[in-house]
TrEMBL record:
It comes from Schistosoma mattheei. It is a multi-pass membrane protein. This is Innexin. One of its GO terms (biological process) is monoatomic ion transmembrane transport. The keyword Membrane applies. GO terms for cellular component: gap junction; plasma membrane. Structural component of the gap junctions. Pfam families: Innexin. InterPro entries: Innexin (IPR000990). GO terms for molecular function: gap junction channel activity. PROSITE patterns: PANNEXIN.
Length: 112
């Protein structure tokens, strides 16, 4: 019921008529898929930029809230390195270079 009302509302805009869509599958692919992708992009954007974006492990307490925000933003930009709980932190540049290959990065795909 809500889906048909929503599609009727979208049909008022007549966006899908000039593209050459032929049936319901074409309309669904042209309109609904884009809306679902935009909704997912919005959810990820809100999660990353308005809520707590990423958790960085810090062994000691940092002085002040601004420094904590800085470290979390640094982790967001640089990515995180997975180290097992029983694993050791590398002490040489070669060890860090090896971990760099396995760095976890989050990518935000958005359309403007």
């Amino acid at each position: 019921m809500i889906g048909t009302e929503f599609l009727d509302y979208l049909s008022k805009f007549q966006v899908a008529t000039y593209v050459g869509v032929e049936d319901f599958a074409d309309k669904f692919n042209f309109l609904i898929t884009v809306m679902v992708l935009m909704l997912c992009t919005t959810i990820v954007t809100i999660k990353q930029y308005m809520m707590k974006p990423i958790s960085c492990y810090m062994a000691t307490d940092l002085g002040g809230k601004n420094l904590l925000d800085y470290v979390e933003n640094y982790c967001w930009v640089q990515g995180t390195v997975p180290i097992a709980y029983s694993g050791r932190v590398p002490e040489t540049d070669e060890g860090w270079a090896e971990l760099e290959k396995h760095k976890l990065r989050e990518y935000l795909i958005s359309t403007f």
